[in-house]
Amino acid sequence: MDLSTTIATDLLSIRAVFFRPEEPFTWASGIKSPVYCDNRLTLTAPAVRNHVENGLVQLIREHYPEAEVLMGTSTAGIAHAAIAGHIMGLPMGYVRSGNKDHGRQNRIEGRLEPGQKVVVVEDLISTGGSVIEVVEALREAGAQVLGVVSIFTYGMQRGLDRLAAAEVENHSLTNFDCIAAVAAREGYIKPEDVERLIAFRNNPSDESWIGGTK
Question: pLDDT below 70 — which residues of the chain?
């Protein structure tokens, strides 16, 4: 079993990724979604956590061997950056969603020297907006951001386009298509649901998939 399939199987087994095409979830944006993702659950499942953290380390070593510092996204990426950094013997820190309103008013927590080569650790990428903000904050601080590693990506075109425009490279342990295929094979969803799920992924604002017409 390859890494992407292993992680997909893991996330489904602990319901970190949960499909409900017949009763969609509603995102804060109002978009109806057939999938709910909470990768924080990996932290409370030691066997899955072990696969995830070692998988992130594998991605970093393969794609960013020059990495000097890991920076987690706040808040979901912090623990993963810490554990992966511990395994690799690398320093880590994290980037807040905004500056603190007290003390030194830091946005970047942890020591970061100008010119250091940084890899951002994220749990989930959908439209790409939040991780791009983190990368931009690090660049403004003088870091050389090599790229991003994440647990799961939806692979939405809007996200891919935004990452490309911001010149941000991402490598994920698994993706929406892989998880949908594993979910159908393992009986979490019906095989005929896969096409509907992919229709959602391709165009989240088009809700015709809900009725099964796609």
Answer: 98-105, 212-214
